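Translate sequence into structure tokens.
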Amino acid sequence: MKSSNSDIVSHAAAILEQLRHEGDPTIREDLGRRYGIHTQDAVGLTMARMKAIAKPLWPNHELAVELWESGVYEARTIAAHIDAPERVDVAQMNAWCADFDNWALVDTACFVLFDKAPDAWSMIEPWANSETEFTKRAGFALLWALALHDKTADDSQFRVALQLVPQNASDPRHLVGTAQTMALRAISLKRPNLRPTIEAIVQQLSESEDPLQRRVARPILRLFATL
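Result follows.
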């Protein structure tokens, strides 16, 4: 039986009460201090605990949407874990992306939900070309996630998306550059036929006069030395 809206609201409220009851101020303080997860609204739970809470709730699209609307970091993390990817559309992805305020939420949404959504590939280019830090990271994090998880994609899809890296490699923000590097790394390891394309991109970046572009390429050069 489908839950009514009031049931969903009540369920979400009960989960939020549980999160606040379990929240640990020390863990909350460590989010920014130790992990660089800077967010306005958190209660302080470990990722392991959030996953444990989420596991019996999956899949529940309506509950995920309600939890996300709370704005609480832990509730949003759980929402990404329990949503049904087949019900996630472009409007929702853009709305959630606009709410991103830390790298952990970006990566969680991209790696456990968005990369399985029907329109995942259509989000990469607009997000990667955004000027907003966490939206831009999301574009490259999603490419990174698809490289690891999308076994049905054609190499040509990655070949086109790879061009977004040199086009955006001068971005000064570390969280963006790191996601670009990790996307290159994942595609290098999972798509061996694209190695020549990636080598050309990395060579171009490594020879650039721009230190930011060289920063993106440097870990991939080290990776190539081990392959």
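Note: The radius of gyration is 19 Å.
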